[in-house]
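Posting this for the archive.
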Amino acid sequence: MVAMTPIATASTTPPRLTSLAHGGGCGCKIAPGVLSQILKQTSGFPMPKELLVGIETADDAAVYQLNSEQALIATTDFFMPIVDDPRDFGRIAATNAISDVYAMGGTPIFALALVGMPVNVLPIETIAAILQGGESICAEAGIPIAGGHTIDSVEPIYGLVVLGLVHPRHVKRNADARAGDKLVLGKPIGVGVLSAALKKSALSAQGYAQMVDSTTRLNKPGIALAQLEGVHALTDVTGFGLAGHTLELARGAKLRAHIDWKNVPLMAGVRELAAQGMVTGASGRNWVANGTQITLPAGFSDIDIALLNDPQTSGGLLVSCRADAVDRVLGIFHEQGFAQAAVIGEVSDGPVGLTLR
């Protein structure tokens, strides 16, 4: 007879979720340089004219025009645990996945769950709590989880496929910034540092609460921002860090981005934690991939470099807008509870890349 793999039960003391994963959150992403090499090996396929957004500029989601009034947004995101609380893990993963629809200017309509769990290690109750966390965020976004797929996996993995709708005129790509635009960031950065501290049991209760509050805050302002005259480009800041996603914006527009580092909002305590070595491996990989296209000012420290490249999970929206639209952009963020949204730089003509000031 073939031996059956036992299923863990609630009476079993479950391991920490983060101990089961070699990486966590958006820090799990394949390094930008490696990903670029992989994609070069894939063959192209003729794109239909209805495909308004594809893979050309590494945008947040695909967009397919259905008719003169509607375009379909499709995206997927999944990762290993960034926290140990199963419900929080589900909430963070769902928020992160739905964000891509908001980053295109769209309204989500439904989701499908992607679930890979080590069922012989984690109790059924733990796995159920992960899914319940994801469902709670989908309910907050006003969408159902209409199906999905599950596998027995060595590492716990959870995420969503999310579909949304947007008017074709309101699609916001990451490649349409214009010279003279201002850059506005919706959330503070530092999630990767906090997650590294959590994994080393060095994160305070206040730090944990701050991380969960940020990573479970839906980027709903994207809907209103996309309809605002003067907003040219939108993206969200995730695994490639503030530097990587700002560079994607600059490359797509063939312009130069400038970040005023002193104006970038940071989560409380992350500079001190980074100084203690609480940084992720993804931060270093991001810097290796993008550093040659970044100009740093004199005295820019290793800590600053780590924070600039810190992988964000469920990070904030990055908006490129006309200078005369800044007040309204900030107003939309602040009205919807994003108190730390701030102007962090601008876009100009010049060689493609990023300059820190």
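The mean pLDDT is 92. The two ends are 68 Å apart (CA to CA).
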